[in-house]
Amino acid sequence: QVQLVESGGGLVQAGDSLRLSCAASGRTISDYTMGWFRQAPGKEREHVASITWSGEDYADSVKGRFTISRDNAKNTVFLQMNSLKLEDTAIYYCAFGSRRATIARFYDYWGQGTQVTVSS
User: Fold this and answer.
1) Could you tell me the maximum CA-CA distance found in the chain, to the nearest angstrom?
2) 3-state class of 51 per DSSP?
């Protein structure tokens, strides 16, 4: 069993930065894939970024603005979000999986989510 706890969400203005954290317990994240997904009201959950031993993947909409990283010693994954836009407003979820993937159904464990709201 893996537990994931996200933090760092909040209300920011367009152009601001925010860093999300996801603390994992139950497994060592360095051996697995960690991903960030988001879901806006009325929309499907979408992949934002993911990291595994073989590399990182980003959604086209966040490339150049968001960076995923992890601290294996703290068993924590981060999502640095810069130049935030109104359309980045969503609930952001951390996810744990056993394979490199950008599709939600390939992830086995999920956090409870953290709200990110970007205002003009």
Assistant:
1) 40
2) strand
